[in-house]
Specification:
The chain is an alpha+beta fold. The protein folds into two domains: 161 residues, 2-Layer Sandwich (Beta-Lactamase), CATH 3.30.450.40; 64 residues, no CATH class. The protein has a five-stranded antiparallel beta sheet, with helices on both faces. Helix 1 packs antiparallel against helix 2, helix 2 packs antiparallel against helix 6 and helix 7 crosses helix 9.
Length: 250
């Protein structure tokens, strides 16, 4: 059987993401899908997406693994790293060998190396003349991203911006409320993850995967399911039971 060329997979991913924008989509789910597409399509092993909050401080929006999640959060806590620099300058950053940047980001390089990463590439998310956030791409081996991969990464970052600002004029006054709403949705999902993690004997990463799987299987938005778990105690039991059943099937 002839294997499809890489360009076909890239186009399929872009079309799928754009199709999602034309329907009633969940922003947390779509941006998580987008980060996962980056990890699958590009010569990297993990991805993370940071968005700016109302005070222009970055916050985690999506990550493809616990390692990339922890590393993105470490940058925010240490106030140091390539994703923060990309956000501040609005310029892409590509580091083929993290050890060469030990003096630039000493804490980040140590944390990234401990997590198993050896290279990092970051592209900015822009709209309305401002930078909305940064898309970080993490590799476990030393190496550059070629021009094609960087173009795909920037294209997916643009799609993320479109998702955030859909049906809104792109002005600073409208950008901030949309970012705030998206980040608030992410907080609800994180709360639901923690709630389920306490009740299921699985990792946080698997908890998130099961929550998404349940939302897909019941044709519901991920954020809606998460909010129901957190705010409607009388609706929790059947959701938890169904998710526990999915865990047993895994």
């Amino acid at each position: 059987m002839t294997q499809k060329p890489r360009e076909t997979f890239v186009l399929d991913a872009v079309v799928t993401l754009v199709d999602s924008l034309l329907g009633d989509f969940d922003i947390v789910e779509l941006l998580t899908d987008l980060a996962e597409q980056c990890a699958q399509l590009l010569d990297v092993d993990a991805a993370g997406l940071l968005l700016a909050g109302p005070t222009r401080h970055l916050r985690l929006m999506a990550a493809t693994s616990e390692e990339s999640r922890d590393l993105e959060l470490f940058q925010l806590q240490a106030d140091e790293g390539p994703c923060l620099d990309c956000y501040v300058t609005g310029q892409p950053i590509s580091v083929s060998d993290l050890h060469a940047e030990q003096s630039r980001w000493p804490q980040f390089v140590a944390a990234a190396t401990e997590a198993g990463f050896a290279s990092v590439h970051v592209v900015p998310m822009r709209a309305a003349g401002i930078v909305l956030g940064a898309l970080g791409l993490f590799g476990t081996h030393v190496g550059e991203l070629n021009d094609s991969d960087l173009l795909v990464a920037q294209t997916l970052a643009h799609i993320a911006c479109v998702a955030l600002l859909q049906e809104q004029p792109s002005t600073p006054a409208t950008v901030v409320p949309r970012l705030q709403t998206a980040l608030a949705d992410r907080v609800v999902v994180e709360q639901a993850k923690g709630f389920l993690h306490e009740r299921l004997d699985v990792s946080m990463e698997d908890t998130f995967r099961l929550l998404r799987r349940y939302a897909h299987s019941t044709d519901q938005h991920l954020t809606d399911v998460a909010r129901r778990l957190i705010t409607q105690p009388d609706k929790r039991a059947p959701i938890i039971a169904a998710i526990r059943e999915l865990a047993l099937q895994s």
